Amino acid sequence: MPKGSEELTAARKDEIINACEKLYKTLSFKEITLNKISAETSFTRTSIYNYFQTKEEIFLALLQREYELWNADLNKIMRKFPTLSKDEFADKIARSLEKRKQLLKIMSMNHYDLESSSRPERLAEFKTAYGESLRTVMNCLEQFFPEMPPEEKQGFLYTFFPFMFGIYPYTFVTKKQRAAMQKAGVNYAFMSIYEIVFNCVKRLLGE
Q1: pTM here?
Q2: Is 8 in contact with 1 (CB distance < 8 Å)?
Q3: Domain locations in the chain?
């Protein structure tokens, strides 16, 4: 593979993103550094700058990939199922997000910092994937619920996508947070990603 080829560039970007994803499973965002990411790859920290200027750009690329994977899952649902009931649609959406823990984690914990610390061209690449998610969910609504008024479809998007930012922190509560809620007298009812998404989609569809 010739040096500088698009294939090589894509492969090295993937290697960096994969290293970041691996670290994020055991370390917090603050604990992850470019040095630690580099140690998980086959090249040096200096080489990373050929592809990403900041740690935030790497995380933004990981978030972009998560959106692209979710988009692929949604499109697969539309191809496989010509029609779905409200319950079935809520089930499919909930299961699709149940697989995207990294998407939910990054968007709720670090989204603003990633966007503010990334170059405009990297941000535009991410927004392309995000915009495709909006369009794909709208396509799902148009296919499965053609009778739904346009303003209700838009209302679904404007409610569901902001709602997604709160899924991870509600479904992954630390022992410290549980203890604090108990001390404060706050009743916490645990719900899984599937349960909380399923219930939200059902309510947005009018059931």
Answers
A1: 0.91
A2: yes
A3: 1-51, 57-204
d(CA 203, CA 207): 5
How many beta carbons lie within 10 A of that of residue 14, not counting itself?
12
Sign of CA dihedral 88, 89, 94, 99: positive
pLDDT, tens digit, 9 for 90 and up, residues 119-146: 999 999 999 999 999 999 999 999 999 9
**Nearest CA-CA partner of 138 in 154, 151, 123:** 154
CA torsion, points 63, 156, 132, 98, in degrees to nearest 10? Answer: 40
Q: Count Cβ neighbours within 10 Å for each residue of 111-126 and write b for 16 or more, e otherwise.
A: eeebeebbeeebbeeb
Share of the chain above pLDDT 70, in %: 98
Length, in residues, of the chain: 207
- What's the CATH fold of domain 57-204? Tetracycline Repressor; domain 2 (1.10.357)
Per-residue pLDDT tens for 103-122? Answer: 999 999 888 889 999 999 99
Helix pair 86-98, 193-204: axis angle to 10 deg: 140
What is the tens place of the pLDDT at every residue in 41-95?
988 889 999 999 999 999 999 999 999 999 999 999 999 999 999 999 999 999 9
Distance CA 173, CA 89 (A): 27
Determine the 3-state secondary structure of 126 from DSSP: helix
Fold annotation for 1-51: Arc Repressor Mutant, subunit A (1.10.10)
